[in-house]
Design brief:
The protein is α/β, with parallel strands linked by helices. The chain has 15 helices and 19 strands. The strands form 4 sheets. Strands 10-11-14-15-16-17-18-19 form an 8-stranded parallel barrel, surrounded by 6 helices. It has a 7-stranded mixed sheet with strand order 1-9-6-7-5-3-4. Bound molecules: ligand TNX. The site of ligand TNX has 10 residues, from loops. Keywords: Glycosidase, Hydrolase, Signal. This is beta-N-acetylhexosaminidase.
Length: about 550
């Protein structure tokens, strides 16, 4: 906590720098460098073509065109270019070629890009489709907010202008995640797709889906059909159940992949399993299925470690993780491992050994919450996800470095700054939405707190290279609708996205909160146009 306070940045209300006489402009997360020279802007109009050069460029251009056609009503044809000269002043060039990204950055080749805009056209360039897509999301933010409209928008008074800009960019961390708990409350496919679109705007590249918990099992598993029978019939608070069929799930994965977002599915084991236990008596030590659970307690359920249940339990693990891996093109499976408070240490370690063996047999790299670091025989490369506070308590730091000692990396989700289900402070202008959320992780949590932390300063001994990335989870015990979800997630997720993407502050100093607030206000206009019901926290000059 001392660290969190010491690092606190004040988000002073600021007037964002005006570019070319336009109102606020800026990109969230902050690029490595962004200059807005005092030159004539680009205007996207009915003549604009998207000129794609290099393998994979046309698909990225098509994703952008499909988005921009809706609001602008323009045709925006994607044409194959054979070189720069093909692009006219009204065109947007999408270029993939070697040497087009900042190669002195660790992830420059993977996801870096450059963006040049002016009256002679727009040029987006990268070495990979992923980098080119990130560039297109910067362009999206530089366009007028009306570009986000999902119906035909009235063109902005000055046209679809992009200020003259010169941007060089690459991410700081490879893994930049948003976690959505669809187990405590179920969110339909359309809500998940909307969420993916919004996190992609912030250059996040992982959607971690917390698919199972005590209150519900949300993914069809053919070999254990009751998981989505009884197991999916409930949620927290008696709000009804739901689950994704395999086709639903494939749709989510595909929509995410088009935005270069990897889905990381989580089946939480061996605790947080009441839904599975309620569906299959043979998974319970006493052979009796418990009732479905609709409360908010944690830590009371577990798979059975007893040898008498070993056959059923190991078959369950192999079947579930096998079917999950088959649906997962990405490299990771998350197997949970948190808050197994209903098992002895010995039983926990035995179950973790069996869970991770079944997981590793699928060929995927495993991720577990930091408690899983208690095991000293994790499969090679297993990733730990840290959820304790900015200042570690008890043995959280040692459990986390255990993953690094065993050849894996770490994802940081410090709960007191990155858990987006923590309450906001009360709103002096009215209690709008403050009924939502929890307080346990040193809540309420302000936007400033979500912005003022440094990944390398949390777990002693973790080097930059040990940190795979950063993730902002949203747990949904108190959140049951898409507007409520948006309210808790935005704007704090933008702070976490900036920590995950943007360069570390120079010389261990603090981030420029005034710059962030100004750019966030600009992002807010886009969220408004998207109809996102975010919380207009104080300290930001919202339009
Ligand atoms: C902790 S920290 C949990 C979740 C709860 C959340 C509520 C961790 C890995 N698990 O089970 O939903 O707190 O904020």
């Amino acid at each position: 906590l001392a660290l969190a306070l010491a690092a606190t940045t004040t988000l002073t209300a600021c007037t964002a720098p005006a570019q070319n006489g336009e109102s606020m402009t800026g990109i969230v997360p902050a690029p490595i460098s962004a200059d807005y020279p005092d030159r004539a802007p680009f205007t996207l109009d009915s003549d604009t073509r998207l000129v794609a050069t290099g393998e994979g460029a046309a698909a990225v251009a098509e994703t952008f065109a499909a988005f921009a056609r809706v609001s602008t009503g323009f045709e925006l044809p994607v044409v194959e270019g054979s070189g720069e000269s093909d692009a006219a002043a009204s065109d947007i060039a999408f270029v993939i070629a070697d040497g087009e990204a900042p190669d002195d950055e660790p992830f420059g080749a993977a996801e870096g890009y450059t963006l040049e805009a002016g009256s002679d056209g727009v040029r987006l360039a990268a070495e990979t489709p992923a980098g080119l897509f990130r560039a297109s999301q910067s362009l999206r933010q530089l366009l007028p907010a009306e570009i986000e409209r999902t119906d035909a928008a009235k063109p902005p008074a000055d046209g679809w202008r992009v200020p003259a800009a010169s941007v060089t960019d690459a991410p700081r961390f490879a893994y930049r995640g948003s976690m959505l708990d669809v187990a405590r409350h179920f969110f339909p496919v359309e809500d998940v797709l909307d969420h993916i679109d919004r996190i992609a705007l912030l250059k996040l590249n992982v959607l971690h889906l917390h698919l199972t918990d005590d209150q519900g099992w949300r993914l069809q598993i053919d070999s254990w059909p009751e998981l989505t029978g009884i197991g999916a019939s409930t949620s927290t608070g008696g709000d009804g159940g739901g689950f994704y069929t395999k086709d639903d799930y494939r749709r989510i994965v595909e929509y995410a992949a088009e935005r270069f977002v990897t889905v990381v599915p989580e089946v939480d084991l061996p605790g947080h399993t009441n839904a599975a236990l309620s569906a299959y008596p043979e998974l319970n030590c006493d052979g009796v299925a418990p009732k479905p659970y609709e409360g908010v307690e944690v830590g009371f359920s577990s798979l059975c470690a007893s040898p008498e249940r070993a056959e059923a339990t190991d078959r369950f693990l192999a079947d579930v993780l096998g079917e999950l891996a088959e649906l997962t093109p990405g490299p990771w499976l998350h197997v949970g491992g948190d808050e197994s408070l209903a098992t002895s240490e010995a039983d926990y370690l035995d179950l973790v050994r069996r869970i991770t063996a079944a997981g590793a047999a699928t060929g995927k790299t495993l991720i577990g919450w930091h408690e899983m670091g208690a095991s000293r025989d994790l499969p090679a490369g297993t990733i730990g996800q840290y959820w304790d506070f900015v200042t570690p308590r008890e043995d959280a730091a040692a459990l986390t470095t255990s993953f690094v000692e065993q050849g894996g990396g770490v994802i940081l989700s410090p709960a007191d700054v990155a858990y987006l289900d923590m309450k906001y402070p009360d709103d002096p202008d009215g209690p709008l939405g403050t009924k939502l959320g929890q307080l346990w992780a040193d809540g309420p949590t302000t936007l400033e707190e979500s912005y003022a932390w440094e990944p390398t300063a949390i777990v002693p001994g973790l080097a930059e290279a040990d940190i795979l990335g950063v993730e902002a989870p949203v747990w949904t015990e108190t959140i049951s609708t898409s507007p409520d979800l948006e309210f808790m997630v935005f704007p704090r997720i933008a702070a976490v996205a900036e920590i995950a993407w943007s360069p570390a502050p120079a010389d261990g100093g603090s981030r420029d909160g005034a710059s962030f607030a100004g750019r966030l206000a600009s992002l807010g206009t886009h969220l408004d146009a998207l109809g996102v019901s975010y919380r207009k926290v104080g300290g930001v000059p919202w339009a």
